[in-house]
Every structure is written in structure tokens, then in C-alpha cells.
Design goal:
The structure holds 3 protein chains of 3 kinds. Chain B is an all-alpha fold. In chain B, 75% of the residues lie in helices and 0% in strands. In chain B, helix 1 (7-27) runs antiparallel to helix 2 (31-55) and helix 2 packs antiparallel against helix 3. Chain C has 2 domains: 1-91, no CATH class; 135-176. In chain C, 72% of the residues lie in helices and 0% in strands. Chain C is globular. Chain C starts with 8 loop residues before the first helix and ends in a 7-residue tail after the last helix. Chains in contact: A-B, A-C, B-C.
Chain lengths: 656, 105, 176
């Protein structure tokens, strides 16, 4: 348990190196791009190696019930002891490895993507900060450390989303992401405070994850207390993991550079929420009410984002909404597992597979965006998107995985979640999930088919779809000459295609690792009772979605109109994103600006300013008053001096 | 015991001189009169030193040396004070301390 | 206190002592109370001569001599010059203010009482071992050995005071 423990040391290195790189780049080398890149890459490669070595070294040694906790007392002040340390159990080990891998791949990818950007070094510094906070989040042993990392992730995402801060929309998006997630974090923090309050014997700083779970398992808390805490913590989860109704920041977060979107939306930031649920799974599982709420909210999220994804024209928006829907799907799986008395495996497994294929999808989108200088996949299609062989193949693999087609990883994990849902007494949930899967397949393959089978250049359809927005995505001149710049065999620099291939490999392989992974996570593997009806309906839904997409967008006779066009009201509803942004704007105007701001402004003007003024006026007034004493008669002053002197002297003499 | 061979005699004397000087400092309006009163106070202190030197001190020369120093300092102080008085007179056309009220609040 | 016979040496010395004390106190009273500023200076001179007499009684003829030399001979003369350089004596003087005098008396009286009590209540203890060397030679020796630093500093102080007096009396910098 000491500081010299090899596990502790490697964890410390994993967390500290990226932080070091952030500090060094920001303070010293931010002018020198090459050097900064070298520092950042070194400081992400070593954690990668360490994380995987930890994984392989400890994978047989730890179980969920018997984790390795190494911590040192970071701050000791009388009764308050703040431990800082690492909790290594299968969940965190796997997550460490995934996060380290994804951030490493994204750094590699960013070498190509951010080439020539004036903020190149700053970008890598921010990536390092993000990596550090995420790695520390997934390995935190105590809730305080987790919360700090949680907030650091928020900070890093703010920096990264608003990376092109000279663009108004980007800085606004960063602000939105920061404020909206903060909204949820208030709930999270209150949940922690209540937990501390209920558990009495623990102070908030020493609140360990293990303690909470033990308390929940041993029924130290009453049902109502668990529900309250779980729901409050879920507020934080829904902020980070973009669950309804505070998911609105995530689509806007696409303003950041594409590697950032990939980083935020695959294994890391948004997964942090799901990770927290798995981390505190016993706590959540102890409350039926809380889990039902989670189930409802995640289902709404799934459907909402899938339907919005159907009408979006920005490729990153589509992936963003698909992320939201998949997160909803994971939360559904976890809550269904908790309600059905099952394990956290399904949701966590989907988190793992999703990390790989969503990062893949985003990075592919990044390649297209980088190449064509636009986010609109219709424009990419016309400009010859399908000629980029490697991204096209890998994006198709990712899309197949996302839709849940055998043999790609998404198939297995979705299947696991659906099986959990199937066990619920109410079959409505599994129906809704299947419908969500159908929609997912539909909107995913809408993108793929449009990219793969563009119309001829003189097709009238282009008048509607070929709208080149001026400015593209913030690359300016760099993008405009990009196609001519590197137009060799595939036109994609190897640093960008290499991560695609690696991630595609993961996507293919992870599906077949279900049994070993389950064994690793749970200690034993449950034999799968293959529910063929469910299996066929799931695959049927996915294939149905793809089929409809083919009819609408793929086949040569397709009208290039979504089936949703037949319901204009509904379509408009989806295009307006279910009016969620309007709702929040209204909410903001009415309650925040209209009510609280006014009250606070009033308070500021009258109470704070008034108070300051009162102090000033009273100072001036008392000065005026006192100045009457200042008669400029030296002898009067001296007389008082002498009198006081004599008085004090006599007083001192009196005692003798 | 002879009256001039007692420490207390000199101390009371110095005390009287000090009180008279203090009264002068507090009551007189002329700057020069105040200066004169200050000289009286200094002399009171000097007498005290000399008296302690005569009756208590281990080395009788030390008190005398200090009295000499007091004299020197008093001379310096008188020179400065007098030049200040001349300057004040030039500025205010008066050496009445009650007229020097430029710092009135 | 016991009074010896008037004509014995101690008696004569005692009478002379009271004369000296009277000179000192009366001079001091004149220096403070007289309305004419010139009388004040003369009172001061008288008082200082009395103090010099006291110094004689305190076994220090040298300091008594210096007292007369510096105070009476230099400072009083300097004050006379200041009087002549400042306000003319024939100007009408404003009447005294009763409250001010009362305040000054109260102030000085209080201090007097305080110091009187202090003097009374303190037990004055002579040093266990006392040297009997009162000679001027020793004073000179001390001035140039143990107290040489102070001696030098005082000479510096006098120089500075002289310069400062000249500068201030000339009307300050820049107004020749």
C-alpha cells in the first residue's frame, strides 16, 4: 500500500505524465510545434504502455469484489484526511487501457489533422490535460479525486471544444458545454454531500468508491436515501453523458476540431457518466425507483437523438446524435440489469465496443472533413467522398458495428443489452430499444449510402443538397487546397489512416472477446441462453433499418428523400431537435435572466454596491466629523497627549 | 543629613522645573517662549542626570558626559528651532502659534 | 531635615543652596510667566545660572561652567537674536485666555503629580561600588574613548544643525 508499490507508481506515471506535458507545453514550448508534439506524444505513449502492462499483469489478480487499492494520504489535517490513490479492479483496468489507447490514437491522428494550425502546440497540451483528467477519473479511488477529475475533464473539454475560439460559435459551444454539464454537476456534488451526510462516519474527502458500494450492499442506507443520492448523482451522469434533457451541449460540441469530437464522444468524456454508473453500480442497483427513472430517461434519450439523427445533414451531427442515443442505450442496459438483478456487464461491454467504433466513425468523418473542407456529407458525396478508400471502408465497418450487424462488435454488445431488457417484465422497453436500433441503422446507413452512391453531377437532386457553406469548418485556406495538396494514392496522410485501421481492427475483434471480457469483469461467464427470437428481431430491425435506408437513399431509383418527409410536422419537429434548444432558451430567458438575474442584479446594485457606497459615505462622514477635532492648535493636541500620558502613568502607579 | 546632600531634593527640584517648563509649553503663544520652556525641560532632565550621577552611579564621569551631550543637542535644537521661527515669521508675519493653523480640518 | 547652625560651614552652604534654588525657580517662573518676551529670556538666563549652581553642588564644576558657557552664553544670546529678527515688541499682544491657562495648569499639574508619586514610591539604590574620580581629566578620557562615537555624532549633529539653520532661515531652497 506504500508509495513504492509498482502498481501505484505506474498509475501515478500514467496520470502525472500527461499533466506534466500539459504544463511544459503551455509554459515553455508552446511556440515550438515540433518539440511540443514530441513531448505530448512521449507523455501519451508511456501511459499507453503502462496501462496495457498493468492490464495484462493484473488481469488475473483482481476481481470486482477484491480490487487493489493503493493510496497515499495527500492531505492530512487533524481529523480530515484526503487520500489520493488508485482503485484497480477489472472495470478501471479495462477503462484505463481503453482511454489510454484512444487518446494515443487520437494524438497520432491529430498530427495530420491539425497540421499547420497556429494553435498546434496548444491543441496537444489540451489533449494531454484531457488525457490526464480522464485517466485519473477512471482510476480514482476516492469520490473526491473522482469529482476533481470529473471537473477537470469538463475544463479540458471546454478548452478543446472552444479550441478555435476566434469563431464565435465555437466559443459559445464551449461555454454551453461547460455551463450545461456544470448544471448536472451540482446534482452530482449534492449527491456526494448527501451520501456523506447519510454515511455519517465518513468525511466527504475520504469517501471511497469501495465504501459507498459496500454501504449500499450491506443496506447501511435506507431505500429513500439511496434513491435520493443515486438520482442526484445521475444528474451529474446525465450532464456528462448527455442524457435527456441536458444533452443539448453535445451536438454543439461538434464545433471543436474533429479529433476532439472523437475524443469526447467515444471512450472518454461522455463515457465518464456511464463509467460512474458502473463504478457505483451497487448503489444504483439498490434503488428500484432511481433505476426506473434512469431507464425512462435513457429511453427518451435514445429515441430523441435517433430521430434527430435521421434529419441532420452534418456528418458530425449525425455521429453526435448517434453517440447520445448509444449512451442512452448503455444507460438502458445498466438500469435494466439493475432492475432485473443482473450484472453491469452488458452496459459496460457496449461502452467498450462503442468506444472503438465511435472513435472510428468520428475519425473517418474527420478525414472527410479535413479533405473536403465541409461538414455536410451531401457535399462530400458530390465531391467524391467514396474515392478515399481507407476511410470509406473503415467508416462502413464502423457503421455496420453501430447498426449491430454480425460479426461486428456492436452486434454482440447490443445483443447483450437487449437480452437484459428482454428480462424486464414490461416488454415495452425492449420494443422501444428495438425501434431505436432500427432508427440507428437507418440514419447510419443514410450517411453511408449517400457517401457511397452519389448521383451524377447533373442530377437535379443536388440543387437541394449541394450547398457549400462558406468557411467550411474553420480551416480556411488550408482546406481549400487540400485535395490538390496530397492527392497521391489515397490522399490521406498515414498518421490519419493508421488510427483508422487500428480502430477498425478493434471493432472487428472486440465482438469475439465477449466471453473472456465477461470472465475478466465478473470472475465467471454466464452461459448464454440464446434467445433466437430476440436475436432475429434485433438483426431484423437492423437490417430493416438498412433496407429502408437503401430504398430512400441507396438504390439508383431512390428519391433521396427520407421516409420521414411524408410526415412534415414530425420532420420539422426532428429538424428543430425536438425544440430542446428552444426550451432551454426559453427557460434561460424566463427563469435565469428574467428571475434570478434580475434578483441578483438588484441585490448587486442595492445591497452590494449600496453596502460599498455606505462604507465610503460613512468613512467620509466620520472623517468630516473627526476633522472638527483637528483644530490645528498644536498646544491643544499636546495638552491631550500630556493628559493621557499622565493618566496612563497614574493608572500604572495605582497598583503599587 | 544636609539638604543639598540628598538625592530627593534635586529630583523634586528638577520635577518643579519640568512642570514649569511643561506649563510654558502648553500655555504660551509665542514660539520663542515655547522654545524657552523647552530649554527649561531639558535642564530638568540634565539636573536629574547629574543628581543620579552624584548619588547613585558607579562612575561619576558618565553622568557629566551625558549632561554635556544634552547641552550640545540642546544647542543644535535651539539653532534649528530659531531658524524655523524666523522662517515662520517670514511666512506668517507672526510667531503666534495660534496663527499657524493651515492644517485645520 | 535638620538645620545646622547658621554660621557653621554647613549652615552657610545650606543657605547658599537655598539661594541657588530660589534663583533657579524664580528664574524659571519669570521665563514662563512674564508677558514681555525679553523678560522671559532674562528669566531663562537666571534660571540657567541657578542650574549651574546646582551643578556645583553636585560636584561638577566643569559641567557648571559649560552650562553657563553654552546655555547662558550661546543659547540665550541666540534667542535674543531670534527675538530681534521676528516680531517687534511694541505690537499690542492679545489678552491671555483663561481656559488655555487652566488646561495647561491641569496638564502640567497632572504630570507633576504623576512624577512626584513616581519619585516618592521608587526606592533609590546607590551602586554597590562607586568610584570617586570626579576630575575633568576622566571626563575628557571618557569623551575620547568610551563615548568617542557619540562625541563624533554630536559634532556631526551640530554641523548638520548649523547647515539646516542656515538653509531654513534663508527661506528654503530656491528662494535666495
Amino acid at each position: 500500500m506504500g508509495a513504492c508499490d509498482p502498481n501505484f507508481l505506474s498509475c501515478l506515471l500514467i496520470v502525472a505524465l500527461p499533466l506534466l506535458s500539459f504544463a511544459v507545453i503551455m509554459i515553455f514550448t508552446w511556440r515550438r510545434h515540433k518539440l511540443s508534439l514530441a513531448i505530448s506524444l512521449t507523455c501519451s505513449t508511456i501511459p499507453l504502455i503502462l496501462a496495457w502492462s498493468l492490464f495484462f499483469r493484473l488481469k488475473d489478480a483482481v476481481t470486482m469484489a477484491k480490487p487493489i487499492v493503493t493510496q497515499v494520504n495527500w492531505l492530512v489535517s487533524d481529523a480530515v484526511i484526503v487520500p489520493f490513490g488508485f482503485l484497480l479492479d477489472p472495470v478501471s483496468l479495462l477503462m484505463l487501457a481503453i482511454v489510454a489507447t484512444i487518446s494515443w490514437l487520437i494524438q497520432i491522428y491529430s498530427i495530420g489533422y491539425m497540421e499547420g494550425d497556429p494553435g498546434f502546440a496548444r491543441f496537444f497540451a489540451d489533449l494531454s490535460l484531457f488525457g490526464m483528467s480522464m485517466l485519473s477519473l477512471v482510476s480514482a479511488s476516492g469520490m473526491l479525486q473522482l469529482f476533481i477529475s470529473w471537473e477537470l475533464v469538463g475544463l479540458a473539454s471546454y478548452l478543446l471544444i472552444g479550441f478555435w475560439y476566434e469563431k464565435f460559435s465555437a466559443s459559445e459551444a464551449g461555454k454551453k458545454a461547460f455551463v450545461v454539464t456544470r448544471f448536472g454537476d451540482i446534482g452530482f456534488f449534492m449527491g456526494l454531500v448527501f451520501l456523506t451526510f447519510f454515511l455519517k462516519d465518513l468525511n466527504i474527502f475520504g469517501l471511497g468508491i469501495f465504501d459507498i458500494n459496500n454501504a449500499a450492499l450491506t443496506h447501511k442506507l435506507t431505500e429513500a436515501q439511496v434513491t435520493l443520492c443515486a438520482l442526484l448523482i445521475f444528474c451529474g451522469v446525465s450532464g456528462k453523458s448527455a442524457q435527456f434533457p441536458i444533452h443539448v451541449w453535445l451536438p454543439d460540441a461538434m464545433e471543436g476540431p474533429t479529433p476532439v469530437s472523437a475524443l469526447l464522444h467515444s471512450a472518454t468524456m461522455v463515457a465518464a457518466g456511464i463509467y460512474l454508473i458502473t463504478r457505483l453500480f451497487p448503489l444504483f442497483a439498490a434503488s428500484v425507483t432511481a433505476m426506473s427513472v434512469v431507464l425512462v430517461i435513457s429511453t427518451i434519450t435514445l429515441l430523441l437523438s435517433s430521430t434527430i439523427g435521421m434529419v441532420a445533414k452534418d456528418i458530425k451531427q449525425v455521429w453526435a446524435y448517434s453517440t447520445v442515443s448509444q449512451l442512452g442505450f448503455m444507460a438502458m442496459g445498466l438500469s435494466a440489469a439493475a432492475l432485473g438483478g443482473s450484472t453491469l456487464f452488458a452496459g459496460y461491454y457496449h461502452l467498450t465496443t462503442h468506444a472503438a467504433f465511435k472513435a472510428l466513425l468520428f475519425l473517418c468523418a474527420g478525414v472527410f472533413i479535413h479533405h473536403f473542407g465541409t461538414n455536410d456529407f451531401f457535399v462530400m458525396s458530390k465531391d467524391g467522398g467514396r474515392k478515399l478508400a481507407i476511410p470509406m471502408i473503415t467508416v462502413t465497418i464502423g457503421a455496420l458495428a453501430l447498426s449491430g450487424i454480425f460479426p461486428f462488435s456492436g452486434f454482440f454488445s447490443k445483443e447483450a443489452i437487449l437480452a437484459q431488457l428482454w428480462h424486464l417484465p414490461n416488454k415495452m422497453w425492449v420494443g422501444l430499444a428495438l425501434f431505436g436500433a432500427f432508427l440507428t441503422a437507418y440514419y447510419t446507413f443514410r450517411v453511408i449510402f449517400v457517401l457511397l452512391f452519389p448521383r451524377k453531377d447533373d442530377d437535379p437532386v443536388w440543387q437541394e443538397y449541394y450547398v457549400r457553406e462558406p468557411g467550411g469548418h474553420g480551416h480556411g485556406a488550408h482546406d481549400d487546397d487540400a485535395p490538390g495538396g496530397h492527392d497521391e494514392h489515397h490522399g490521406v496522410p498515414w498518421v490519419m489512416s493508421f488510427p483508422l485501421i487500428v480502430l477498425a481492427g478493434f471493432t472487428l475483434v472486440l465482438g469475439f472477446l465477449q466471453t473472456p471480457l465477461e470472465k475478466f469483469l465478473l470472475g465467471e461467464s454466464h452461459p448464454h441462453d440464446m434467445n433466437y427470437m430476440l436475436l432475429f428481431s434485433a438483426v431484423g430491425c437492423a437490417l430493416g433499418g438498412i433496407g429502408v435506408a437503401w430504398l430512400d437513399w441507396g438504390s439508383p431509383k431512390a428519391k433521396w428523400q427520407g421516409f420521414i418527409k411524408k410526415f412534415p410536422a414530425l420532420e420539422n419537429f426532428f429538424i428543430q431537435k425536438w425544440y430542446m434548444d428552444h426550451f432551454w432558451r426559453w427557460f434561460l430567458n424566463t427563469f435565469i435572466y428574467g428571475t434570478f438575474s434580475r434578483i441578483f442584479t438588484y441585490n448587486d446594485r442595492r445591497v452590494v454596491d449600496g453596502g460599498v457606497d455606505a462604507v465610503a459615505f460613512s468613512t467620509i462622514g466620520s472623517g468630516r466629523l473627526l476633522s472638527f477635532i483637528q483644530t490645528a492648535f498644536v498646544q491643544l493636541n499636546m495638552l491631550f497627549m500630556v493628559l493621557v500620558l499622565a493618566g496612563v502613568g497614574l493608572y500604572l502607579l495605582m497598583g503599587r | 543629613m544636609l539638604v543639598f546632600n540628598q538625592l530627593e531634593t534635586y529630583l523634586y527640584l528638577a520635577l518643579l522645573l519640568f512642570a514649569i517648563g511643561l506649563y510654558g509649553v502648553l500655555a504660551r503663544r509665542s514660539l520663542i517662549a515655547i522654545l524657552i520652556s523647552v530649554e527649561l525641560i531639558l535642564n530638568a532632565a540634565s539636573i536629574n542626570f547629574m543628581a543620579f550621577n552624584r548619588f547613585l552611579a558607579p562612575h561619576p564621569a558618565v553622568g557629566q558626559v551625558i549632561a554635556l551631550f544634552i547641552m550640545a543637542v540642546a544647542a543644535a535644537e535651539a539653532a534649528i528651532a530659531l531658524s524655523i521661527i524666523v522662517a515662520v515669521y517670514r511666512k506668517l508675519k507672526s510667531i503666534n502659534i495660534e496663527h499657524a493653523t493651515e492644517l485645520r480640518g | 531635615m535638620n538645620f545646622p547652625g547658621f554660621l557653621s560651614p554647613q549652615g552657610i552652604a545650606t543657605i547658599a543652596f537655598f539661594v541657588v534654588v530660589a534663583v533657579t525657580l524664580v528664574g524659571a517662573l519669570i521665563a514662563v510667566a512674564a508677558r514681555n518676551i525679553f523678560h522671559n529670556v532674562l528669566g531663562l538666563a537666571m534660571s540657567l545660572i541657578g542650574v549651574a549652581g546646582l551643578f556645583l553642588y553636585l560636584n561638577s564644576p566643569f559641567v557648571a561652567l559649560m552650562e553657563i558657557l553654552i546655555y547662558v552664553g550661546a543659547i540665550c544670546i541666540a534667542i535674543c537674536f531670534a527675538i530681534m529678527l521676528s516680531e517687534p515688541l511694541y505690537l499690542p499682544r492679545p489678552p491671555r485666555k483663561f481656559t488655555k491657562i487652566l488646561g495647561a495648569m491641569a496638564g502640567s499639574g497632572l504630570v507633576f503629580i504623576f512624577l512626584l508619586l513616581l519619585t516618592k514610591k521608587t526606592k533609590w539604590v546607590p551602586a554597590a561600588e562607586r568610584s570617586t574620580d570626579w576630575s575633568v581629566t576622566t571626563i575628557g578620557h571618557y569623551l575620547l574613548t568610551n563615548y568617542s562615537l557619540i562625541f563624533e555624532v554630536v559634532s556631526l549633529l551640530l554641523l548638520v544643525a548649523m547647515l539646516g539653520a542656515i538653509v531654513i532661515a534663508r527661506g528654503g531652497r530656491g528662494s535666495s
